[in-house]
Specification:
Blueprint (H helix, E strand, L loop, with lengths): L1 E6 L10 H14 L3 E7 L2 H4 L11 E5 L2 H7 L1 H6 L2 E5 L5 H11 L3 E6 L2 H9 L16 E4 L5 H9 L4 E3 L19 E6 L4 H17 L5 E4 L13 E4 L4 H9 L1 E6 L3 H6 L5 H8 L4 E3 L5 H4 L7 E2 L3 H10 L2 H18 L2 H15 L14 H5 L9 H7 L12
Parallel strand pairs: 1-2, 1-4, 2-3, 4-5, 5-6, 6-7, 8-9, 8-11, 9-10, 11-12, 12-13
Amino acid sequence: MKIVILELLITSSWGNGHATVFHGLVRELSARGHDVLFLERDQPWYAENRDLLEPPFGKTVVYQTVKQLKMEFVDAIRDADCVIVGSFVPDGIEIGNWITQIARGAAAFYDIDTPVTFAQLSRGECEYLSPELIPRYAVYLSFTGGPILKKIERDYGARRAEAFYCSVDPAIYFPDFSAEKKYDLGYLGTFSADRQSALDALLLAPATMWAAGRFIVAGPQYPESIQWPANVQRVAHLSPAEHRDFYNAQRWTLNITRAEMRRWGCSPSVRLFEAAACGVPIISDEWDGLAHFFEPEKEVIVAKNARDVLKTLREMPERDAREIGERAGARVLENHTAAHRARELETLLGSALVPSAGFGVSPKPSAQNAASGGLYAQVSRETRDTALGTSALPSEVTT
């Protein structure tokens, strides 16, 4: 298939999780024979912090303005089998309206920030998606699964809303059993005001209570006003090439979920899968749907406060901790690699090419498209989940 992706970023991982997701996904799609064009809007902040200027997979073009996009890439977008527009794309509403009018193939929206998107929509503040635009996309791909998928279809008129979770590249993230464990607990994440209270409770408070413990927090944009305990090391930014060494230097790693993600549940972070792929045992905050991805106490430890964290760090035998990390890593390799997502996307995009009235849908899918799942959209969600190799969510978080 010819696939055009308009997303926030692929050339810079500074302060965002979008780039690492697309590194693996675009590479796997290209390896499977698809022609992938990635279009990224040039922005000063990211232009100054690019760590993969020319990705060695697919074709990446950085454009300057919407006018340039419309002039230079109209043919590529019109002739593509599928065009994917991502969340937080600058001028995303204008671009989405244009694409859903001219695309002959399927037009899809890929939301890496689904709960944040709908919180903004409810306040009328979303700059990259509008309620009127949602039904024009053939399929709404969501980083978040569970009950929010029904809301997208019921309340906003999406033709189809499908979970399309983040993933990890096992060629980059894997265990290093010879690595020195320099830290008892580490955290990797850009500053977010709605995560800070959890970071305070689950890392800074334990560090304060355990002066002999060794802690590290990596990520940009943390305010200078934060008082870091003396035993917490700070790193302003880590490129993706440094993530594996970062995880493997920890006895345990911490996962924290943004407030809107916790509210809806079923929102695994890409950092969660990265750490698990490295075999590092994970301590996570509590959120609905976590058990769909990792079994608590067996594959992940859930902590509610500093005492829970310290009990795990100081009392759990190293052998038990290692086995938790190994089981989580095996779970990720079975279900959440970039290769898994590339195959899922083939099926989802193939089903979106079924003849249908409306914007952004091909009237005559090619034989290649039909072979990749052209009749798929006609079956139930349960059947689609089975075909995609994903189990149903627990009853309290059904899709």
